[in-house]
Amino acid sequence: MKRRNLLISTGLLTGAAIAQTSRSALAEQRLMKEVPATLPKPLKPNSKRLRGKMVAIAQGLNGYQVMPEQGNGPFPTVLVIMEAFGLNDQIKSVCDLYASYGYGAIAPDIYGGTVFAYDQLGGAVAKLKTLNDEVVVKQVGQTLDFIGTQPKLRSDAVGTVGFCMGGRYAFLLSATFADRIHSAVCFYGGGIASEPDPLGRVSLLPLVPQIQSPVMLIYSAEDEYINGAEHARITQAMSDNRKRYVLSVVPNTQHGFMNDARSTYNESAAMESWDMAFGFFKRHLKNRPS
Fold first, then answer.
1. With a threshold of 0.70, does the pTM exceed it?
2. Which residues contact 204 (CB under 8 A, 6 or more apart)?
3. Same domain, 103 and 207
4. ∠ CA(257), CA(282), CA(205), 5° rounding?
5. Containing domain of residue 104, as a range?
6. Which site among 14, 72, 162, 192 is 20 to 30 Å from 170 CA-CA?
7. Positive/negative CA dihedral, 272, 278, 279, 284
């Protein structure tokens, strides 16, 4: 090849490489603006300094509510669904955590004031077995109605996050209130697709076609209650129905690893998972157009 042609070819290749690098850099910058790679630390609930309050959501239904300390709103809203142990200080502190990142947060007390200590698993499971999905759905509907009456909350930008029992309900709510729940994060939600379910709960997979908004499911790799076969059934149903979802299995974790009040808490895994959850809500909830 002549020197002139070689220089031209080299220049074209260099220009193409620079253009490709620029496009990649711009794409990365846009992504970073949408979803930060990391969030301020420590990113964990703090049940020792709760700053929300109990409110009357509807007749016979109370809940814990907290607003961001800065700004006038209206704020995107996160509906927090508790574990089987009830609306305790740890779940309230999860609401506080979301409020510290600019969300209004509310947790309905679907146990009606009953709370179990973490060493009272038998009592918590017995209480869980008494729940009726239709009743819980009604209570959440009342909570969504309550959100609609709050001028500082956005009823057009509502996400739900649940843990364990609450993870299953977050999935159920994303299908049942498909036009009112705009994203859902389900932490180790058992009973979504059990075959059979040890607690007698019905599978939620027949409701998947109703889901309209993105769903994130985060599971423990060493969960003694939820295995890979259940993950696969969920993935199959969501993919077959062309739903937008993320399913992540976190290695070296056990059931309940997000809860710093439980013996299975895993701090590094919890921080990573909080980053994923907050990034998911920022993309699909906080940045949701009014």
1. yes
2. 168, 171, 172, 175, 191, 192, 193
3. yes
4. 60
5. 41-286
6. 72
7. positive
Residue 270: both structure tokens together: 């919890």
When the pLDDT of each residue in the chain is averaged and rounded to a whole number, the result is 88
What single string gives the DSSP state of each residue in 50-108?
---EEEEEETTEEEEEE--SSS--PEEEEEEE--TT-S-HHHHHHHHHHHHTT-EEEEE
The two three-digit tokens of residue 87, written as one number: 């609306």
Based on the fold, state whether residues 161 and 251 are members of the same structural domain. Answer: yes
| pLDDT tens-digit readout, 87-127 | 999 999 999 999 999 999 999 999 999 999 999 999 999 99
How confident is the model over 191-210, as a mean pLDDT? Answer: 94
Instruction: Quote the DSSP letter at residue 207.
Output: G
Q: How many domains, in total, are found in the chain?
A: 2
Domain with residue 105: its CATH number is 3.40.50.1820
Q: Same structural domain for residues 151 and 247? A: yes
Q: pLDDT confidence of 25, banded at 50, 70, 90?
A: very low
**Residues 252/279/48/267 CA torsion (nearest 10 deg):** 20
